[in-house]
Amino acid sequence: MLHPVTDRRLHRIEREARFEAARGALLALLGPGARRDDGWFRAPGVVGRHKGRDVEVRFPGGAAARVVRTRTRIRTGGAFQAWPRSPLLVRLGFAYVGLRGAPPEGTAFVLERLLRDLGARRVDAGEGALRAELAWSPDAPDPERVGRALDRLDRLALALEEVHAPLVESGGALVCPFCRDGIADGAPLARCERCGTPYHPTCFEEGGGCGVLGCAHRAARSTSGRLMGPRARRDPKGTPATRVDDDPVDSAPDEGPEPTPAALPEET
Asked: Which residues contact 179 (CB under 8 A, 6 or more apart)?
C-alpha cells in the first residue's frame, strides 16, 4: 500500500499527464498555427483558429480545472446570454434555455444542444466575441466534446454576423444594383457583409464587390451562409487570372529602389 503523500503525488502526475494529452488533442483540432498559452495573468489553455475564426480555450485551475472556457472572435453581432434552467423550473413549464437579450433567430436549437447535450453552463455574446463555459472533468477529460461545442459556436457566430439591413426595393421588388434586374422571390442572393445590399451572387462576384457609394466592401454572404468574394479576372488572351481584390500596391511590379537625389553643391 502506498503512503498517502505518495498516492496524492502520483494522482497529481497522472492528472497533469491527462491534461497535457487533452491540450495536445485540442492543438491538433485547431490546426497547424495553434499553440499552448500559459500566460502569467491568464488561465492555461490553447489558442488557434477554427473554421477561419480566432479561438481561445482556457482551463481555469490548469490540470485541476472543473470548467473549460472558450472564446470565439466575431466581426459583429448583438449581445445575449443563455444558461440552462433548473429541472424544477422546467417541470413547472419554463423553457429549458434561460435568456437575457436577443439571440439570432433560428438558433434556439443550437443553444439547447450546447446547454443540454454538450454540458455548457453558459453561452454569451458581446464585445466582438462569442463565449461558452462547459463542464470539465480533470479525471476524464473529453477534448472531442470541446470540439463539438466549437462547431456549434461557429454556427452561432454565422448567425450573429448575418447582416440585417432594410431591403433595397424598387416598385415592391428587390433590384440588383449591378445589373439593375429584379431578384425574384426565393432566388439565390448575396448580401454585402458591411451594408447588407442584396445582389445576384454572380453579379457580386463579377462586379468586384459592393458597388454602393461609400461601401466598396469585397465580401458577401449568400442565402446558404457561404462567404463570397470577387471572382478572378482573365484578359482576352487567356493569361493567368488576377483577382479583382488584389491590393494594387502589393501587386504592382517592383520598380527598384528610389533614385538618390543628387547632392547640392556646398556653399563657398
From this structure: 200, 203
